[in-house]
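User: Just a sanity check before I run the rest of the batch. Below are the structure tokens for the first item. I only need the designed sequence back.
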């Protein structure tokens, strides 16, 4: 069985965010850092080269594959902000229409900039996603599904 590609590192989250070239994406990254840190009560950890994660969740699939991932997190990509773990909460489908301009992937939520969304709804999604993953240890979070 292959090992997960995305593992926690000791790289500085603040240094990573400060190096984001796009000024809006950089500012949004620092805003998400504060938002997610405040909601989860966890310190941010770099997972792989580009994911800022909060909390740690161990998952195990029926196939026997298991690993760890952040409970919630984000990545300030060139094209958008990728948000992880927010669609796993039980209220996600109810909250998504209220969020504002966004796109969804198989497991991720994508926004161009925080200005495009209702940050209070985003905060509710972070809270619900984090609580759900922490309360349901056998449920793999969306980030785990994107692994190798």
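Assistant: Here's the designed sequence for the first item:
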């Amino acid at each position: 069985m292959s090992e997960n590609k995305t593992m926690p590192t000791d790289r500085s989250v603040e240094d990573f965010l400060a190096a984001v070239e796009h000024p809006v994406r950089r500012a949004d990254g620092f805003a998400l850092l504060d938002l997610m840190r405040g909601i989860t009560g966890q310190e941010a950890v770099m997972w792989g080269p580009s994911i800022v994660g909060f909390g740690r969740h161990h998952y195990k699939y029926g196939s026997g594959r298991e690993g760890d991932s952040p409970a919630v997190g984000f990545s300030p990509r060139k094209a958008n902000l990728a948000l992880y773990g927010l669609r796993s909460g039980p209220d996600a489908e109810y909250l998504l229409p209220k969020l504002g301009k966004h796109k969804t992937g198989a497991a991720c939520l994508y926004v161009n900039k925080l200005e495009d969304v209702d940050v209070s709804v985003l905060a509710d999604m972070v809270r619900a996603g984090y609580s759900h993953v922490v309360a349901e240890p056998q449920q793999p979070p969306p980030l785990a599904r994107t692994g190798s």
